[in-house]
Specification:
By secondary structure, the chain is α/β, with parallel strands linked by helices. It is built from 16 helices and 12 strands. The chain has an 8-stranded parallel barrel with strand order 1-2-3-4-5-7-9-10, surrounded by 4 helices. A two-stranded parallel ribbon has the order 6-8. The chain is globular. The structure holds 6-O-phosphono-beta-D-galactopyranose. 6-O-phosphono-beta-D-galactopyranose (BGP) binds next to loops. 6-O-phosphono-beta-D-galactopyranose binds next to loops.
Length: 475
């Protein structure tokens, strides 16, 4: 049986990691525009004191300012996606192109017009846009004025922004996502929520407040989307964690359950419309008194998502033994799994984990799933003849596609589509590097920002084309 007819094969990017043109046509600064490149990037962006200094005096190299200049190359890039046969293309709208300060009286017409052309270009090639409303790029002015999502002031501002884009693109966009990796706000509140919070690991109140505000805003966006665009589908988006207990020691199993809850309470709220009991108890126990509006409970109840979308790169383990070394990971640590290989960046590669995760999520929510990020960040070598033989990437994607097929075919999981991350090389969110490449399309640019920005096809380009052409049969 394999993949269903109409399965949405495609690829994914985000505005701040691809568009560049960071001040073009009236765009305001976004949080991503003040995050520097280089080794210390993640430590710096999660250090509120360091970020306050950079915002006051923005010196250094900021990879988002030019990125891969998708803003001026989108026609050429979308033509290449079409050549691979993409059915869908996931990108985000930069909020600060539409409302440069987040709270402006009027939207910026030039920003709106840019996405009109972008979505028209997709449609011209028969590609269905899948649009994230907020992908790590809230307007910086909202941070300086309100401390970002730590403040409830952002809820109506976001709702207005969401309503503006739904109304404008109602004939062009039928698939929407609210917040990218909404659960990452708890690890990286500036990246995820534009909130500068000192010592967020200890100071949990504002972290959960920012998350609560985003959950309410997400529910309002879902409701608005259904009202404005009948027939549209809108999903949430989480950084999904496949977490194993490191051993069968009951303490490890319990820790796994606790860590899972850190991730899945977000989607529990978004899929079911209220906080799970374990989370309300946690807030009580930790004396976290969320500021909740009188209508919040109703809003959450009325704004449940149509489908669950997620990123999946790797799995993790939970160990109650403090001596076990932490594995490097996508914003998360954890004990190293001895059964798995890792990427050059220490991300543990686990295709079967994807099948297990698809089953876990489908059992938990009984809603359609959408894999909106997956892929291997790796260094590519351009050979003397210009070819790029990225067999390691093909190998990674092939195994994940096979795992996804088994979940669909043998286990009966409903999966709407698959959009591997960084279908064209772009700036890495965690490291700011260009050399951590995910794409089927190579972009000539290095970690210092030098290069011609020329695009070229990697070996994986024709491989993925065949995968799509055969609806996953030739993998
Ligand atoms: C997710 C983000 C993306 C993307 C991806 C890969 O966390 O949603 O924005 O960047 O991970 O991560 P990285 O760029 O750090 O390799």
């Amino acid at each position: 049986m394999g993949f269903p007819k109409g399965f949405l094969w495609g690829g994914a990017i985000a505005a701040n990691q691809a568009e560049g043109a960071y001040l073009a046509d009236g765009k305001g600064l976004s949080c991503a525009d003040v995050v520097r490149g280089g080794k210390g990037r993640f430590a710096e962006m999660t250090d509120a004191g360091a970020m306050r200094k950079i915002i006051a005096d923005p010196t250094g190299f900021f990879p988002s300012h030019e990125a891969i200049d998708f803003y001026h190359h989108y026609k050429e890039d979308i033509a290449l996606f079409a050549e691979m046969g993409f059915k869908t293309f996931r990108t985000s709208i930069a909020w600060s192109r539409i409302f440069p300060n987040g709270d402006d009286a009027q939207p910026n017409e030039k920003g709106l017009a840019f996405y009109d052309s972008l979505f028209d270009e997709c449609r011209k090639h028969g590609i269905e846009p899948l649009v994230t409303i907020s992908h790590y790029e809230s307007p910086l002015a909202l941070t300086t004025k309100y401390n970002g999502w730590a403040s409830r002031e952002l809820i109506p501002l976001f709702e207005r922004y969401a309503r503006t884009v739904f109304a404008r693109y109602q004939d062009k966009v039928k698939y929407w996502l609210t917040f990218n990796e909404i659960n990452c706000t708890q690890f990286a509140p500036f990246l995820g929520a534009g909130a500068l919070i000192d010592n967020p690991a200890e100071n949990r109140q504002p972290v959960y407040q920012a998350s609560h505000n985003q959950l309410v805003a997400s529910a309002l966006a879902v409701k608005a989307c259904h009202e404005i665009i009948p027939g549209a589908k809108i999903g949430n988006m989480i950084a999904a964690m496949m977490i194993y207990p490191y051993t069968c020691r009951p303490e490890d199993v319990w820790l796994k359950t606790k860590e899972e809850r850190n991730t899945y309470f977000y989607s529990d709220v978004q899929a079911r419309g209220s906080y799970p009991a374990y989370m309300e108890r946690f807030f009580e126990r930790e004396r976290i008194a969320l500021e909740r509006g009188p209508d919040d409970a109703r809003i959450l109840r009325e704004g449940t998502v149509d489908f669950i979308s997620f990123s999946y790169y790797m799995s993790m383990t939970a160990s109650s033994d403090p001596a076990l070394a932490g594995a490097e990971g996508n914003l998360f640590g954890g004990a190293k799994n001895p059964y798995l290989e890792s990427s050059e960046w220490g991300w543990q590669i686990d295709p079967l984990g994807l099948r297990t995760l698809l089953n876990f999520l489908y059992d938990r929510y009984q809603k359609p799933l959408f894999i909106v990020e997956n892929g291997l960040g790796a260094k590519d070598v351009v050979e003397a003849d210009g070819s790029i033989n990225d067999d390691y990437r093909i190998n990674y994607l092939r195994k994940h596609i096979q795992a996804m097929e088994r979940a669909i075919d043998e286990d009966g999981v409903e999966v709407l589509g698959y959009t591997p991350w960084g279908c064209i090389d772009l700036v890495s969110a965690s490291t700011g590097e260009m050399s951590k490449r995910y794409g089927f399309i190579y972009v000539d640019k290095d970690d210092e920002g030098k290069g011609t920005l020329a695009r070229s096809r990697k070996k994986s380009f024709s491989w993925y084309k065949e995968v799509i052409e055969s609806n996953g049969e030739k993998v």
